[in-house]
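[audit] Reproducing an earlier prediction to check determinism. Same input, same settings, fresh worker. If the tokens differ from the archived copy the diff job will pick it up downstream; this log only records the rerun itself.
[audit] input (209 residues):
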Amino acid sequence: MSLGDLLVFSILCLLILDLPSASGRIMLDYSLARGKTRAMALIPAILLGSLLCFAAAFAIYVWLSDSLRTMRDLLSWSALAYLAIHVLRGLQIRQRLRLADNDNLREKTLFSTLSRGFLSQIRPGLAVAIAALLLQTVDSPQDLAELGLHAALAFTVAGVGAPLIQLLFARQRAARLKRASLGKPGAPKPRTRFIARRAVSAGYRRIAA
């Protein structure tokens, strides 16, 4: 891969890794609850999970390139279609994400948070997406060892950059999630101000009876 191909591959991997996901949610919740300095400890665990996912993606790429070498155009178009589906699915996940209530984290210790961050990056869909990026950016067959080393270095840069971006813009993204969770305000209805209090009072009277 040329330097330009490596740069394009790294930027595309950064965009894919920055899509809404479980690891991004963990980074967001932990940075808000514990602070950005402590949340930086999650980056190595997330990076390690991403590298394992990249290893699986590279194996998928090698297998597809070797077994379907005569169908290169079909592979390229199929990879492009899968990338589009993967991005759309990530945008749909963003609509379902919610912040932890009162900054309460599911994990009570740093070790449990690190393990969950590591496991959250081992996703079959992410591995297939990275393999699709390799099919899009690698033009001609070349030495697999050299290709794997260069692609791994470019992916490592993206694997470090994505959680750093999520960490730096945690408050802005949290505010966006809060606005989305509030939804549209309901229409004002007259004479309904004391309905909740009356219902509670009626409930207490019924219990007392």
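[audit] rerun output stored. Observation attached for the diff report: Residues 3-184 form one domain.
[audit] end
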